[in-house]
Amino acid sequence: MGFIDGQNLFMQAKRLFGYRTPNFDPLALHHEMCEVAGFLPGAVRFYTGLPSPRRQPRWHAFWCNKAEAMERDGVEVTTRPLRYRRRRIFDEDGDVEFMVQAEEKGIDIRIALDLVRMARRDELTAAIIYSQDQDLNEVVSEIEAISEIKGIEIKLACAFPTSPQSDFDRGVMNTQWLRFDKQLYDRCIDDRDYFPRT
Predict the structure, then answer these.
(1) Which one of 40, 60, 146, 175 has the fewest beta carbons within 10 angstroms of its own beta carbon?
(2) Can you give the residue ranges of the NYN domain (predicted)?
């Protein structure tokens, strides 16, 4: 099964590959990575923060439209509203400025809970986590404990983009790391336009 942190994957692909929109097809990417890992591709779960329709109406519409399309394709989608916090920063002259920053809350916890729940119900034999969020490190030891109690092996891998410019080239600890480059990513691009028509 694939567990995709949509915002985490988007931000890494944007930083390393230069894409300004989340233009990946989660099913195509999961199939590619399963081939790399030697897994049979199973179901895909997609998790993302959802921008506010008032603060970011264009991006809200984008993610709603993309989520609907993914669900039609058989992907199980979980969303959580983004939270907006006012942050104090210092400019280059040392003066205080304020900015509003969107934050994603609860996505890593939801992924961890789903992994543990499915492992306990014997619904999981192998999983690829598409995130470099180090908050997910702890779920790995929980899955290992469940595996030991049940006397079964649950294989865990972590897939993430990489490039020569990568300054953080590590996945979730104690998983098999599956790095993918721009060439592989480009084979998994979704060309559909999910932005609202103006």
Answers:
(1) 40
(2) 3-144
CB 45 within 8 A of CB 3: yes
Q: What is the mean pLDDT of residues 114-132?
A: 96
Instruction: For the chain, give the longest Cα–Cα distance.
Output: 61
End-to-end CA distance of the chain: 37
Q: Which amino acid, residue 97?
A: E
pLDDT in tens, 40-54: 999 999 999 999 999
What gap in Å lies between CA 184 and CA 32, rounded to an integer? Answer: 8
Closest listed residue to residue 136, CA positions, set 47, 19, 67: 47
Tell how many helices (H) and how many strands (E) occur in the chain.
6, 8
Residue ranges in the chain assigned as alpha helix (H):
6-17, 26-37, 57-72, 107-120, 137-150, 182-186
The Cα-based distances of 192 to 23, 32, 152, 157 in angstroms read 8, 20, 41, 29
Question: pLDDT by residue (tens digit) across 171-189?
Answer: 999 999 999 999 999 999 9
Question: What is the arithmetic mean of pLDDT over 68-76?
Answer: 98
